Inverse folding.
């Protein structure tokens, strides 16, 4: 498949194309389900538009636990269908769809009770592995094994001796969720979808009782466009109810937001080679290896405040530190926390007061003619959700237009960067020698760009200065920033520091030191004026200050008020002026 950049020029062309024709399907929402739906529809030969009000993955899809997993704890709930479905998707992502972005990650499950717990938990993990095999696909990860206490502490010396009597060692999958979601939208564009971020739906178009498209506003210029479509798919996650309200309908279901927060600490703060999964009184707690860091999470609490910027409070952070410290020889403190991120899970509203007990399964509604609503689910099963949404849209469209549309084929469609990935990985020594970069740097790039790494290396060959590491975040090259703006749809400083890279959670200063350099590199691509560059930096610094303040607040209400102190930047036409 030919690589297509999510460039500023392609964004303008996408908006022009969407406003000049009647699309088969317009997808609202650039998260993992929206991007998946756009790719699904485009690969069926349909004309497709995808609009996102902010940045790709700027909501839930960049703030998950970064796991591609079957949901081991759902076995206890006897939700075998959901687990089997998720394990099948895990195998697809690991081996075919996104091997450059998804990889196996090991975990230890500490045992604290003799005999019966090993039998009980061991049977569950064995069933987990067996269900992956019985899904008709390979597991994609190594088989589980039992460990003695000594064997577990050999892998994880950070564990207290009295924190376990033995352990189970098993594998799941890990993903950079923000990059994977962006790759979905970019792959959809490669198959012909018209894709535009920073494009907000302000109303739905109607003809009688039927939805016939949407009126959208380009938040970069202020221009408004009518986009006609035979079917509209609402894939807006926790914003589902608000988007559904544009149709003047209550809808068949409601979405409830559950807040989950995660901490990021340096790798040397916890001695070990493998992740941890711990039981808490409310849910489970993960300690997940993340390159030079650990991710610790998550919480699971009801949230009814700002959905744009969910805030982590000090009590949230204390909760995670308190629980992880029960098993660590050297306890973590607030000073060890490099980054904090909070996200909202879109759960189908139920009668249970605890969000951790609400279903992660999804639902599709077609109660309004011309409008399909998809909600719920979990990150791992995004492709199944997208298929179900497009199936519903195709069925409704066929009733009117008598058009035969092919079945979903995305299980056989690798994302950009996946084709030839293994071969390029095998050539990494050669790439290092030719580019002058170290082998470790090449491997880092391959895990972020896959076989598209050659585009990045071509960029460095043209501009050798881009081979240098960023001054305030040496894990990333200057070329990655330029490429984010020219090929990956990054429009603003937040997009690059928080999502195309993870500098915002991987540095103690949250990206403050690197902001000026990143703004300069992005500004050269996007044609920012000096004033716009200053505005971008000012906004980013205000965001960091507001987030830090919110994390000192005692509860959700005060944390939300503090976080709302930094507003979104919505630049107008002069943002495109050159220096």
């Amino acid at each position: 498949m030919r690589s297509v950049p999510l460039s500023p020029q392609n964004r303008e062309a996408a908006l022009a194309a969407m406003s000049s024709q009647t699309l088969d399907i317009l997808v609202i929402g650039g998260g993992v389900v929206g991007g998946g739906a756009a790719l699904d529809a485009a690969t069926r030969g349909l004309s497709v538009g995808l609009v996102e009000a902010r940045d790709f993955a700027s909501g839930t899809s960049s703030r998950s636990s970064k796991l591609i997993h079957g949901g081991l704890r759902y076995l206890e709930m006897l939700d075998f269908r959901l687990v089997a479905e998720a394990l099948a998707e895990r195998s697809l992502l690991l081996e075919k769809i996104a091997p450059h972005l998804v990889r196996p990650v090991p975990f230890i499950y500490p045992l604290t009770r003799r005999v019966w717990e090993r039998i009980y938990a061991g049977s569950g993990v064995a069933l987990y592995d067996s269900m992956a095999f019985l899904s008709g696909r390979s597991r994609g990860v190594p088989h589980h094994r039992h460990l003695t206490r000594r064997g577990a502490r050999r892998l994880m010396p950070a564990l207290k001796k009295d924190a376990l009597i033995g352990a189970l060692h098993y594998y799941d999958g890990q993903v950079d969720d923000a990059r994977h979601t962006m790759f979905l939208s970019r792959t959809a564009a490669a198959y012909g979808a018209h894709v535009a971020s920073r494009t907000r739906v302000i109303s739905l178009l109607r003809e009688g009782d039927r939805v016939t498209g949407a009126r959208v506003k380009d938040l970069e210029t202020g221009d408004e466009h009518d986009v006609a479509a035979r079917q509209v798919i609402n894939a807006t996650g926790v914003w589902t109810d608000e988007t559904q309200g544009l149709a003047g309908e209550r809808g068949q279901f409601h979405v409830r937001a559950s807040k989950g927060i995660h901490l990021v600490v340096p790798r040397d703060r916890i001695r070990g080679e493998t992740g941890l999964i711990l039981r808490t009184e409310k849910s489970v707690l993960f300690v997940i290896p993340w390159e030079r860091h650990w991710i610790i999470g998550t919480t699971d609490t009801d949230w009814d405040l700002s959905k744009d910027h969910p805030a982590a409070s000090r009590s949230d952070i204390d909760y995670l530190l308190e629980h992880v410290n029960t098993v660590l020889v050297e306890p973590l403190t607030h000073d060890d926390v490099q980054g904090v991120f909070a996200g909202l899970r879109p759960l189908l509203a139920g009668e249970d007061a605890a969000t951790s007990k609400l279903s992660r399964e999804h639902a599709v509604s077609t109660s309004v003619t011309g409008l399909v609503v998809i909600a719920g689910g979990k990150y791992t099963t995004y492709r199944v959700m997208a298929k179900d949404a497009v199936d519903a849209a195709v069925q409704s469209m066929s009733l009117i237009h008598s058009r035969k549309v092919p079945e979903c084929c995305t299980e056989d469609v690798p994302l950009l960067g996946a084709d030839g990935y293994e071969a390029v990985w095998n050539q990494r020594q050669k790439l290092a020698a030719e580019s002058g970069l170290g082998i470790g740097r090449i491997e880092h790039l391959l895990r972020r760009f896959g076989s598209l790494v050659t585009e990045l290396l071509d960029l460095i060959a043209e501009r050798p200065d881009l081979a240098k590491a960023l001054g305030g975040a040496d894990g990333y090259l200057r070329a990655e920033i330029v490429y984010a703006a020219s090929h990956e749809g990054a429009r603003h400083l937040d997009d690059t520091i928080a999502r195309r890279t993870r500098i915002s959670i991987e540095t103690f200063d949250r990206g403050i030191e690197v902001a000026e350099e990143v703004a300069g590199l992005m500004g050269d691509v996007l044609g920012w004026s000096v004033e716009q560059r200053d505005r971008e930096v000012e906004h980013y610094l205000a965001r960091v200050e507001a987030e830090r303040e919110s994390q000192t607040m005692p509860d959700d209400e005060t944390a939300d008020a503090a976080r709302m102190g930094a507003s979104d930047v919505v630049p107008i036409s002069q943002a495109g002026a050159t220096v």
